[in-house]
Design goal:
There is one protein chain. The chain has helices at residues 2-8, 50-55, 75-78, 119-130, and strands spanning 15-17, 26-31, 40-45, 59-63, 68-70, 84-89, 94-98, 106-108. The chain is of the alpha+beta class. It has one domain: 3-Layer(aba) Sandwich (Rossmann fold). A five-stranded antiparallel sheet has the order 4-3-6-7-8. A three-stranded mixed sheet has the order 1-2-5, with helices on one face. A hairpin with a 7-residue loop joins strand 7 and strand 8 (106-108). The longest helix is centred in the last third of the chain and has 12 residues, at 119-130. The protein is globular. The mean pLDDT is 92.
Length: 133
């Protein structure tokens, strides 16, 4: 989601992910200095965001299984377009994004499918089935 957004909305045609092109000039996604694989972390959601409404809360604890994340140098760049940063960890690193006015465009760095039922998966299924013909 971040790479496509950087390329097609923000105009960084050469935006790249370090896992696929570690020497690219615009690495929007880079390897984390400390892996989050297997970690459980506390999150804070923006009040009024879709994700806060789904959780009925502005905080949550979620599980991670990743070694890559948003490059710190691009956090401010990502905030310049219409995408919203709606969730962060205790250090302020981006962990949840949303696209306004879309029935369900939410991206997370954590892994919702690690537990069931999960509020994001339930909300996604509701969004999909409520618009089915």
């Amino acid at each position: 989601m971040i790479i496509e957004y950087a390329r097609n909305v923000l105009g960084f045609k050469d935006a790249q992910h370090a896992e696929y092109d570690p020497y690219a000039s615009n690495l929007f996604i880079s390897q984390l200095t400390c892996s989050l694989a297997g970690r459980t972390m506390h999150l804070t959601f923006e009040p009024g965001s879709r994700v806060a409404a789904i959780y009925s809360a502005t905080t949550a604890t979620e599980q991670y299984y990743c070694n890559f994340g948003i490059s710190p140098g691009y956090s401010d760049v990502l905030k310049q377009g219409p995408m919203q940063i709606t969730g962060a960890d205790a250090e302020g690193d981006i962990r949840v994004i949303e696209w306004p006015d879309h029935r369900f465009f939410i991206g997370t760095l954590f892994v919702p499918q690690a537990r069931s039922p999960h509020p994001l998966i339930t909300a996604f299924l509701t969004a999909v089935t409520s618009n089915a013909n």
